[in-house]
Each structure stands twice: as C-alpha cells, then as structure tokens.
UniProtKB/TrEMBL annotation:
Residues 3-183 form the Formiminotransferase N-terminal subdomain domain. This is Formimidoyltransferase-cyclodeaminase. Pathway: Amino-acid degradation; L-histidine degradation into L-glutamate; L-glutamate from N-formimidoyl-L-glutamate (transferase route): step 1/1. GO terms for molecular function: folic acid binding; formimidoyltetrahydrofolate cyclodeaminase activity; glutamate formimidoyltransferase activity. The lineage of its organism: Bacteria, Pseudomonadati, Bacteroidota, Bacteroidia, Bacteroidales. Folate-dependent enzyme, that displays both transferase and deaminase activity. Serves to channel one-carbon units from formiminoglutamate to the folate pool. The gene is ftcD. The keyword Transferase applies.
Length: 569
C-alpha cells in the first residue's frame, strides 16, 4: 500500500491573493505533492491549504510553505476573526493510507524541530505530537494567541516546545507555529438566521464537548463556580469530539457556529448538524445552511445522505451521486456558495484524472458511443466487456424494482426491506461496471505481451511467460464477471416474487440480461483458457465456468416462470 499523508496548514492571510499564491507556489514547487484545495477566508483573514503525497515529500513541502509564509506575513499587523498565533498558525499531518497516526506524530515533532533550527520560528507540538498531555489540546498551545507570545515564551511552563525562551525579532514577525498530527478533522460552519455573536456563542457552548462554565444564580451573568483547585466547573455540551465558537461574518452578514469535529467516529457531520439545529431552535433561531471549510471525507457525505434518506423512509440503494446530492440539500451545503463534491471531497481530489479516465474509458462513454466503439474494427471491447455491461444492466433493473417498491404508495412499512435489496443491487452493479473496462484491459495485456521482442532466447522466454500470465488474467476476468453477475439472481427473484407488481416485467428482463451476461462471459473464459499452457489451471477455470452457466440457466428459468405466472393472472 502506498504511504500517503495529508497536510492542512492554516496561514494567517486570507485577503492578499498574491501572498496566498506565493505560499501555495512554494508548497507545490517543493515537488512530490499535490495541492487539493486552497480555501481563503476574508473575514477570518486566513487560508487553509490542503495537499497530499508521500510522507517525506509532504514534510518538505510543509517546511517550504512555513518558510515562505514567514517571509511574506508580518504578524504585527495581522487581524482576523479566527484565533491565531503565527503566520503559519497550525500545521497538522494526517494519515491517509499506509502510515499510522503515531508515525505522523514523530514526523511532526521532527518537522517542528527543523522549523525552529533552520528558520528560528518557535513551535508548539499539539494533539498526537504533543510532548505534554495538556498540549494535546490546540487551545492550550494557542492560549492568548499571538499577543500573548512575549509573556508565554519567557515562562518555562508556557514556552514553546522548540524555541529560544524569549520573544525574538523573528518571533515578533512570524509568531509561533502549532505543529501536530491528528486524524481527519471536519471544519464546518453552521449559518444562523441572526447577526448576534452572543446568541451564536450560546449555541456553540450548548453543543461543544467542553460546554460552558457553571455559574451561580443567573446562567449568563452569575459568578463562575470553581473547583477546589480554582478551575472553572464546566457544564459539558452534547457533542463529543467537537470544539465550537460563535462569530459574525461580514462577508455573509450573518452569525455562524464555527465548529471543528475532531473525532468523526464519535460525532458525524449529520449528527452535529441536527444537534446545532436543535440548540438553535431552542433559542429561537434556525440553521439556514452549512459551510464546509477545506475538504471532507467521502464517507461523511455518504453517511449523511443515507441518514437523511432514512429519515424520509426513502431507499438508500441509489447512486453515490444522488446520495451526496441529498446530503448537500439536507444540510444546505450550497447555502452561501455552490458546493461541488469533486472539489471538496478528499477521495475525489486524490484521484488522478488521467489514470481514472484511462481505467474507466468504456463506462464513461454514452450508450451510443459504447455501441459505436464495440462495432468498430478494433477487437476490444469485445464479448467480455459487453457481457459485464449486460450483467450491470440486468442488475440495474432489479435495483430499480427494489427502489420503486420502497417508494410505492401503501408499502411504507416495507421501505427498509426494499432499501436493503437496492443497496445490494448497487454493490453488484458497481462490481460489474468495473469489469467492463477490466476485461478490455486484460485483452490489451495479451496484445502487449505478444508485441514483446523475441530476438534472443532470454527475450523469447520472457515473452512466453508474459503471454501466459496475460492469458491467464484474460480468462480470470470473465470468470469474475460470471461470479459477480450470479449475485444478481437472488435480488431479481425476490423482486419477481415480492416487488412492485407493475414492474414484474423489468425483473424478468433483468434475469434474461444476467443469464446472457454469464453465458457470454463463459465463452470468453473458454476461448482464453484454450491458450493456456497450464492445462490443469485451464480445465479448472472451464469447469467452474460450466457450473456457473448451468446454474444461470436454471435461475433464469425459475424467475421467468414466476414472471409469466404473474403476468397471466
């Protein structure tokens, strides 16, 4: 597995486009990273940059960004709505794949040390990278913000983890960087139909994990209750793993609850949305929409879309695009400006567009273009790809019947049942669609192997091994298609027996398509297996394909019998 980490530095400049572009340019020019998002905020005077890459490249890019920001941003003149302590305010490293949070924490500590040693910029280490337990909380590291640094740097208990022990000229211009390691964090603002920061703060205190100080008598103006150590006694909020404050945004002319969801496993985005809505309504306000700052994991939107569909007693067995659309509309993610998932979802942005387009060349075509490509003089796509596509279409028909049944008037008590069937159908359909292009890629692999040089005995042996390997793969792919398509029969049979009677013919047509897909893919297993030198392996695959074909014919006959019986009633 490729080792990938994400870095989301927050720079204390959100208004000067030239400065923002210069910092982003320094990150990009370091090499080996891909910038996914640049999100400036005028009111906060802060820009969030998101980039990904292999650990070493990301660390180098982060260092270059910090260096350039310290050259261009003078913290003595900085003002903005968001808390901040440095030109680069926060610099978190986030594990994406092939690397642990603990490994990211160690990288963060070394990066902080380098920033101090080479640039003279003091650094605090927070969250997983913290050297002290209390500094796991970013708020502790950033307490008092930039203005408190002269006092903090002279205090051994509050001084940076890496720094000079005094407020230097460099610290005066650059401030202090908070370097950390954390899991995915969702930065989100909930828009309120008010201009009152005090009321927005009240909602934020209602929901954030830290809550609000307990007071004697009047809950707003009463004396704060303190424990025996002199610390305020807190009344916890309702959302775990959430930090929140209220603020006013001149750009939009509204107050917001600004929240960081630091533990998306404990508190989902949709749970936070619902809870802020509840707390706002209890105080006479409404949440009018939601603003995502930076990027968001795909699963957060998928989970939200399914959550709101289930609240409507609607099937969740629809396309990913439609599920995300429900999430966007339900939470008002497009309230202040358009929300494009392709630009905001981290997994979508990490996809290499050229590689994806090459990998999904066929399924991105229109029906007309797919047919034309099949009919051309090129030998691929051929029967294997067409079989996978037939299987996907047959499965899609069964999924459609499930969704129609889930939404049928008078069947409201069964929506969950049919929704489950539709989700199963979507999974099979996705698998078969991926096999459309995989089959053509397998055929092209044989062509590439056959074109290898054969001018020496060594080259001949290498070519023969490559042809054998490619031929085996070309037989394995249609066998995978057969197995995947066979998964659609239980869905189609259930829809024929119990689905919306007005769509009974669709279930039957789906069975015909799936049977044809399996038989067609079986032909491709046999023709490719015939070219294998490993006859034992070839006979094993042919035998497995024959059993799948026999079963498919039987399944189709059974479903058509059910359909015919109902049509003749």
């Amino acid at each position: 597995m490729r080792r990938i980490i994400e870095c989301v530095p927050n720079f204390s400049e959100g208004r000067n486009r030239e400065t923002i572009e210069a910092i982003a340019g320094a990150i990009e020019k370091s090499g080996g990273v891909r910038i996914l998002d640049i999100d400036p905020g005028e009111a906060t005077n802060r820009t969030v940059v998101t980039f990904v890459g292999e650990p070493e490249s990301v660390v180098e890019a982060a260092f270059c960004g910090v260096k350039r920001a310290s050259e261009l941003i003078d913290m003595r003149h900085h003002h903005g709505a968001h808390p901040r302590s440095g030109a680069t305010d926060v610099l978190p490293l986030i594990p994406v794949s092939g690397i642990t949070l603990e490994e990211c924490a160690e990288l963060a500590r070394k990066l902080a040390e380098r920033i101090w040693t080479e640039l003279g910029i003091p650094c605090y280490c927070y969250e997983a990278a913290a050297f002290r337990p209390e500094r796991k909380n970013l708020a502790v590291c950033r307490a008092g913000e930039y203005e408190a640094l002269p006092e903090k740097m002279a205090d051994p208990d509050k001084a940076p983890d890496f720094g000079p022990g005094r407020f230097t000229e460099k610290a005066a211009t650059s401030g202090a960087v908070n370097v950390g390691a954390r899991d995915f964090l969702i930065a989100v603002n909930f828009n309120l139909n008010t201009t009152s920061v005090r009321r927005a703060n009240a909602v934020a205190f209602d929901v954030r994990e830290k809550g609000r100080p307990k007071r004697e008598g009047n809950p707003v103006t009463g004396k704060i209750v303190k424990d025996r150590d002199g610390n305020p006694v807190m009344i916890p909020g309702t959302l775990k793993g959430c930090k929140a404050i209220g603020w006013y945004i001149d750009e939009y002319g509204i107050a917001q609850v600004s929240m960081n969801i630091t533990d998306i496993n404990a508190t989902s985005l949709h749970k936070a949305f619902d809870e802020v809505c509840r707390a706002a309504e209890a105080r006479g306000m409404r949440v009018t929409g939601t603003e995502i700052v930076g990027l968001i994991p795909r699963r957060s939107l998928i989970d939200a879309g399914k959550y709101f569909l289930e609240k409507q007693q609607r099937s969740t067995g629809i396309s990913e695009e439609e599920i995300i659309k429900i999430a966007v509309k339900s939470m008002g993610l497009d309230d202040l400006k358009p929300f494009n998932p392709k630009e905001k979802v981290i997994e979508y942005l990490m996809e290499d567009e050229k590689e994806t387009a090459l990998r999904e060349k066929l399924i991105r075509l229109s029906c007309r273009d797919f047919a034309a490509e099949t009919a051309s003089e090129s030998p691929a796509p051929g029967g294997g790809s067409v079989s996978a596509y037939m299987g996907a279409l047959g499965t899609a028909l069964g999924t459609m019947v499930a969704n129609l049944s889930a939404h049928k008037r008078g069947w409201d008590d069964r929506w969950k049942e049919f929704s489950g069937h539709a989700e199963q159908g979507q999974a099979v359909m996705r698998e078969l669609l991926s096999l459309v292009d995989e089959d053509t890629a397998a055929f092209n692999g044989i062509s590439s192997a056959c074109s290898m040089p054969k001018s020496s005995e060594a080259e001949i042996r290498e070519r023969e091994l490559a042809i054998e390997k490619a031929t085996r793969y070309a037989a394995e792919v249609p066998l995978k298609t057969m197995k995947a398509a066979a998964k659609a029969f239980p869905l189609l049979k259930t829809m024929a027996l119990e689905g919306n009677p007005n769509s009974i013919s669709d279930a039957g047509t789906g069975a015909l398509a799936v049977r044809s897909a399996i038989l067609g893919a079986g032909l491709n297993v046999r023709i490719n297996a015939a070219g294998l030198k490993d006859r034992e392996e070839a006979e094993k695959m042919v035998s497995e394909a024959a059993a799948l074909e026999k079963s498919a014919v039987r399944e189709e006959e059974e479903i058509l019998c059910i359909v015919s019986g109902k049509l003749n009633q």
